[in-house]
Structures are given as structure tokens and as C-alpha cells.
Design a protein that fits this description.
This protein folds into three domains: about 45-75 and about 215-290 and about 515-543, D-Maltodextrin-Binding Protein, domain 2 (3-Layer(aba) Sandwich), CATH 3.40.190; about 85-200, Dipeptide-binding Protein, Domain 1 (Dipeptide-binding Protein, domain 1, Alpha-Beta Complex), CATH 3.90.76.10; about 295-510, Dipeptide-binding Protein, domain 3, CATH 3.10.105. The two termini are about 35 Å apart. The chain is α+β, with helices and mostly antiparallel strands. The longest helix has 18 residues, at about 485-505. The chain has helices spanning about 10-15, 75-80, 130-140, 180, 195-200, 255-265, 280, 310-320, 320-330, 350-355, 365-375, 395-410, 420-425, 430-435, 450-455, 470-480, 485-505; strands at about 50-60, 90, 95-100, 100-110, 110-115, 155-165, 165-170, 215-220, 225-230, 245-250, 270, 285-290, 295-300, 335, 385-390, 410-420, 440, 505-510, 515-520, 520-525, 540. The protein is built from 17 helices and 21 strands. The strands form five sheets. It has a seven-stranded mixed β-sheet. Strands 14-18-13-17-15-16 form a six-stranded mixed β-sheet. A four-stranded antiparallel β-sheet has the order 4-5-7-6, covered by helices on one side.
Length: about 550
């Protein structure tokens, strides 16, 4: 699942968290010198050896609207909730499923998953976790009135029932290979039924909080200031001992203020660090990078007008200065993309994906080619409206660079800056997309399954905004969704990927690295995209 870059969404807009990332920071304060080369990717860090009484962690995207795991579809919510609430499984360092509130599952036939629940698990208040709590939690997500973006996992769901005291059975209408991935997502995070029902609409708010099972307990929420968590010393997972006693989350969004707080030590750490501060912070503490499941791309919203001619889309791909964007805008903390889904998201059959990926056009700027294409196309000379999020300095600069290059190629791009509210509306309301031809988007996948993105462009998909229709593409995605053999599934996905690259319904630009900073006295945390859905604070501690 991918999400808009918004700190808070209405229930309607929460469903829009499927094509654009909520994990992006606001503006980064302009360019920094000396950050145009690729950083070292951190795959491991020394384990902590000391306990720490408290850590202050800043949420760069601002104060969350709730800490209800059902709404963990934006970065500010997910970064907190992942340390409190747990799913039936979790994602390991390699993004593979690991047991959590379930010990395992069987898959007796293509339509059935039988999940064995872990015995003896208790909520923070000491009450036992029951199959009914699990059922309530999952079914709660499925209530459209709740407005959870995680409802999307159940498109092929027939039903979910307790088939034993410690057993849950999921039945599907048709095979869907993506379903097991969601067992580790907030779609299956477990909350205490009685507590949630009593809290009602206040569940997840500052008034009520939440009741879960994870390594950190909800403490307090002083709105406008901080959310505090405390270590759950009765956590069932005795194999992992969190080193931090108390966690305090702050909500500073101004990049300059973020940098000042990190440099001074008033804040101990932060994901999505302003790029202008990377060099300075690297000299002070731990400024780390990890490969991500995040693409930045141009999405076609209007298949008519100028973009109706393939030559226009081909010219757009040719005129983008990929090296310039990565070096100047992202300061070397990104890589160019040949396809919508980045290589880090190939969760299986990497050899198959790599071979097919290498066949796709290399992302290089070729202004002469762009000029030639425009010269032969009357449509390419028509005005193109490109929308982007003004809150992101990176996207503002990228959009401006694209528009400038288009002018040099003989095209006309009119930039349309969008507020956060307008940006979110694009994903929810057709009228908000009116008059927009192209949309600059940054997103991420929650787990390394390319299908989770490519399915959005099949005929009839809610998120297929331009109405893209390619029967061969649809057939390849449909076949992949029901193919459990990894290599065979990868071949079908790669077939669809190649068709999309040829049709250019979107134009991939780059994949940004995950970044995190924490002070020199801390160690253990490795930057991975999965921090949004896993208890990342359990890896952090003192040196």
C-alpha cells in the first residue's frame, strides 16, 4: 500500500493512501554542498549494550490525527503505532514474514489460510488476547464507515472466522497471492475488543488512547506537544528486550527547527531528515541510509489532449534530467528508475526481475530525441498541466526542472502547485483531477511485492485514474495474482511491467533511499522501509 504525503486525512481521503507516500518530509530548506554522490547503504549496526531512560524522537511530518492502528496509513501515525500494536506476523530485516501474535499458518488450498494464534499473549492491561479480539480487529478494518485504507486487502475475501480457541481461518472468493503479506500489516493489527468498543469514536485519540500488546504501551498525549510511550516489561516476546524505557514523540515540521533540535541534542532522532542537514548531522552522529521500496514518478491523469499521442509521453521521458534531479534535488540519496517498482521491492525471483528490468530503456536525458519527437507531433506542442505538492521542496524543484527542460524541447508545461488538501483530493475525487494532465508522485510499497503497485493500473481499478486499458496487461496481472510459484509469477509481473513501460502510462524517475538520524550515544537501528509497520524502537539503545 502506498500513501499520500499528508499528516492527517479525513476518512474519505484515507482511502487515497494507495498511490502516494505519506512518508515524505516537507521542504528541506534548499541545496547542500557536497551531497551529490551515493551514500553508503547501512545493512547492519552494532547492537545496543546499554539501557536508555528516555529518547525523544521527532515526527517530521507533524502531529498524528490519531494513534488508531486502523488509520496507520500515514507516516506520523505509523511511526508511533508500529511500536505499540502488533499484527499476526511481522516483517523481518529481509521483509519476510516472521511470527508475532500468530505462530504460523497453513494454506491447505488456494482459497484458504488457517492461522494458528499464539497462546498466552496479554494486552497491556493484563487481559488475555482471544480469537474474538482478533476477529473484531480484522472485521473493524472492513467497516467502510471507519474509513481505513487497509480495507483494500479484502477485495477477494469471502469471510474470516474463528475455527478454534486459537485458530482463525480466512476464506477467499478467488486466489490472491498478496493476502499473506497483509498478515503483518495494520490490516491485522490486534486491539482489545472491549476497550475499543467502550472508547467508541474516541479510540485512538488523546482522550482514550489504544489497547494493544506490543513492546511499548500508550502513555499520554499532550496535543500540540508530544505523545509518550513506556516500555511494556510484560511483552510476550522475551527474545527481544527493548533498551529504551520511555519514548517521547514530538511534531516539529519546520526543516530548520528540525535540524537545530537534532544538532543540539534536544531531539535524539528522526526519520526523513532534511537533506540540507545530512552532511552536518553525519559529522555529529549516525546519519544512515537504506534501500527503499519508494518510487518517484510522473503519473498520467488525462490520457487525452497532448498526452494522447505516444510521442508526447516518449518526449517527456527523454527530456527529464535524471542525473541532475538525483544529484541536485536528492543530493545523491536516490537512484534512477527504469520501471515503476524499484529493484528493492523484488521480494522473490530477483534473477527473473533483474533480467527483464535490464531490457527496459535506461533513464537518461536526451533532449535532441525529445525535440525530434515534438517536431513530428502536433499534440506534443499542446499545453500540459503538471501538478505537484508545494509542501515538498524536492517535488517543487523536480517539477520546475521538468517544465524548464520541456520548454527547451519545444513543449509547454504549466505547473499547478497543490496544497496538502488539494493533493489528497486528487486521489479521492474525479473533479479534483479535472484540468490536470500529469501528476508528480512519490510513493512506497509496504512489502516487496510488485503486484501491490501494478494491480492499480488494471482496467476498472479505482486508482487507474487515466482509464488505462491493455488486455495483455490485465491478463498478465490476473495470472500473477493467482500464481504461487515465484519464478512463474515474476515472469507474469515482468510482462505487465514491460507493457506499462512501452505504453508510458507513468514515467519513473527515481527511488529515494530511506534515511534516519540518531545521536552518537545511540546504536542498533538500521533504516528500512518497514519501520512504518514494525517495532523499530526495540532495536535502538545505548552504546
Amino acid at each position: 500500500m502506498t500513501r499520500p504525503r499528508l499528516t492527517a486525512l479525513t476518512a474519505v481521503l484515507a482511502g487515497a493512501c494507495t498511490l502516494a507516500a505519506c512518508s515524505a518530509a516537507p521542504g528541506d530548506g534548499g541545496p547542500a554542498a557536497g551531497q551529490a554522490t551515493a551514500p553508503v547503504i547501512t545493512t547492519s549496526a552494532p547492537a545496543p549494550t546499554k539501557d536508555v531512560d528516555s529518547v525523544t524522537w521527532n515526527l517530521s511530518t507533524g502531529e498524528p490525527a490519531t494513534v488508531d492502528p486502523a488509520q496507520a496509513g500515514v507516516e506520523s501515525i505509523s511511526t508511533i503505532v508500529g511500536n505499540m500494536c502488533e499484527g499476526l506476523f511481522t516483517l523481518g530485516p529481509d521483509y519476510r514474514l516472521q511470527p508475532a501474535l500468530a505462530t504460523g499458518f497453513t494454506h491447505p488450498d488456494p482459497l484458504t489460510y488457517v492461522i494458528s494464534l499464539r497462546k498466552g499473549v496479554k494486552f497491556w492491561d493484563g487481559e488475555p488476547v482471544t480469537a474474538q479480539d482478533v476477529l473484531y480487529s480484522v472485521r473493524r478494518i472492513l467497516d467502510p464507515k471507519l474509513g481505513s485504507s487497509w480495507i483494500g486487502w479484502a477485495v477477494n475475501l469471502e469471510g474470516i472466522e474463528a475455527t478454534g480457541d486459537d485458530e482463525i481461518t480466512v476464506k477467499l472468493k478467488k486466489p490472491d497471492v498478496m493476502v499473506p503479506n497483509f498478515f503483518a500489516m495494520p490490516a491485522f493489527f490486534v486491539v482489545r475488543k472491549d476497550f475499543a468498543e467502550k472508547a467508541g469514536k474516541d479510540f485512538g485519540t488523546a482522550k482514550s488512547g489504544v489497547m494493544c500488546t506490543g513492546p511499548y504501551k500508550y502513555g499520554s498525549w499532550t496535543q500540540g506537544q508530544n505523545v509518550t510511550l513506556s516500555r511494556n516489561d510484560a511483552w510476550w516476546n522475551t527474545g527481544v528486550r527493548p533498551r529504551i524505557k520511555d519514548l517521547r514523540f514530538t511534531f516539529v515540521t519546520d526543516p530548520s527547527a528540525q535540524t537545530a533540535a537534532l544538532v543540539s541534542g534536544d531531539v535524539d532522532g528522526q526519520f526523513i531528515v532534511p537533506r540540507a542537514a545530512h552532511e552536518q548531522l553525519a559529522a555529529k552522529g549516525n546519519m544512515l541510509y537504506g534501500t527503499s521500496l519508494s518510487p518517484t514518478f510522473l503519473a498520467v491523469l488525462n490520457p487525452g489532449g497532448a498526452l494522447s499521442d505516444p510521442a508526447t509521453r516518449q518526449a517527456l521521458r527523454a527530456l527529464i534530467d535524471y542525473k541532475g534531479v538525483i544529484g541536485s534535488v536528492y543530493r545523491g540519496t536516490a537512484q534512477p528508475l527504469r520501471a515503476l517498482v524499484p529493484p528493492a521491492a523484488w521480494g522473490y525471483a530477483q534473477d527473473v526481475f533483474q533480467a527483464e528490468y535490464d531490457k527496459l530503456p535506461e533513464p537518461v536525458q536526451d533532449l535532441e530525441k525529445a525535440k525530434s519527437l515534438v517536431g513530428r507531433s502536433a499534440k506534443a506542442k499542446e499545453k500540459i498541466v503538471l501538478a505537484y505538492l508545494t509542501a515538498s521542496e524536492e517535488e517543487t524543484r523536480t517539477a520546475t526542472a521538468i517544465a524548464d527542460a520541456a520548454t527547451r524541447a519545444g513543449m509547454t508545461i504549466e505547473l499547478r502547485p497543490l496544497t496538502g488538501e488539494q493533493f489528497g483530493a486528487v486521489f479521492a475525487a474525479p473533479q479534483a483531477r479535472a484540468g490536470i494532465d500529469l501528476f508528480l508522485v512519490t510513493g512506497y510499497l509496504d512489502f516487496p511485492e510488485p503486484l501491490s503497485y501494478y494491480q492499480f493500473f488494471t482496467s476498472g481499478s479505482f486508482y487507474n485514474f487515466p482509464g488505462y486499458k491493455n488486455t495483455d496487461y490485465d491478463a498478465a496481472i490476473s495470472a500473477a495474482m493467482t500464481t504461487e510459484d515465484p519464478a512463474a509469477r515474476a515472469r507474469e509481473v515482468a510482462k505487465a511491467q514491460a507493457l506499462m513501460a512501452e505504453d508510458l502510462i507513468n514515467i519513473p524517475i527515481a527511488t529515494q533511499y530511506v534515511n534516519v538520524y540518531y545521536g552518537p550515544e545511540l546504536t542498533g537501528l538500521v533504516p528500512r522501509q518497514s519501520y512504518l509497520n514494525t517495532p523499530w524502537a526495540t532495536t535502538l539503545g545505548g552504546k
